């Protein structure tokens, strides 16, 4: 997803993956413009959506149509599962920061307590 979008690829993206799509990517796609500065932040948002899907078995807003899911993402962040640990909750909050510039990098997330947390062997 982090490549610069062409008009054709952005239209394809809107039709295939709205459940994982960052709001700023939707805005770029709707304006038919490209912005290479959002590339990494878009992937971090999608990572957060993937974590939610791994935890719940379905992507955020999966109960809605693709267009409805896009509208939701444009206006709010996905709900974070209440059963998630405090570290996991913080990890996802960072992935879903509304301002893409404020999202951590993948390298920063690799040092997050949620990723580094070790489980005890039985």
TrEMBL record:
Keyword hit for RNA-binding: no
Keyword line: ATP-binding, Kinase, Nucleotide-binding, Transferase
Secretion signal, residue range per the UniProt entry: none
GO cellular component: cytoplasm
Residues annotated as domain Protein kinase: 1-115
SUPFAM superfamilies the record matches: Protein kinase-like (PK-like)
InterPro entries: Kinase-like_dom_sf (IPR011009), MAP_kinase_kinase_kinase (IPR050538), Prot_kinase_dom (IPR000719)
Recorded GO MF terms: ATP binding; MAP kinase kinase kinase activity
Stored Pfam families: Pkinase (PF00069)
Family: Belongs to the protein kinase superfamily. STE Ser/Thr protein kinase family. MAP kinase kinase kinase subfamily.
Protein name: Mitogen-activated protein kinase kinase kinase YODA-like
Species assigned in the record: Trifolium medium
Lineage: Eukaryota, Viridiplantae, Streptophyta, Embryophyta, Tracheophyta
